[in-house]
Predict the structure.
Amino acid sequence: MNAKAVKEVLKAHVGRAYAPYSGFPVVALVEAEGEVFLGVNVENASFPLSQCAERNAVAAMVLAGKRRLERVHVYSPKGPIPPCGGCRQVLMEFGGPEVEVVLHGPEEEVRTTLGALLPLAFRL
């Protein structure tokens, strides 16, 4: 997908996030083996039970039988935000340090890599 199309998909789905406690909706799109998979954050009154958009997108990818990330996109109307530490580790499980991560906000974007976000990732 081209960058403009990705951003439109992200913006179109951010309203599906369930973020009544933080007011911080997030949508993630992962590109894997020529396909795209979406996830949104799903909060819970017991915060540790909440699910991040990035991990939900990875779960959709795994459910479809894919195992290798090519690129990760994260969008929030609050601005470009990086994945949390747990999501960084999950993303690294299915990608590598060279996988591009694009952090989208309403007006701006930041491009980085998984390696830059998680330089000392736990790897087996």
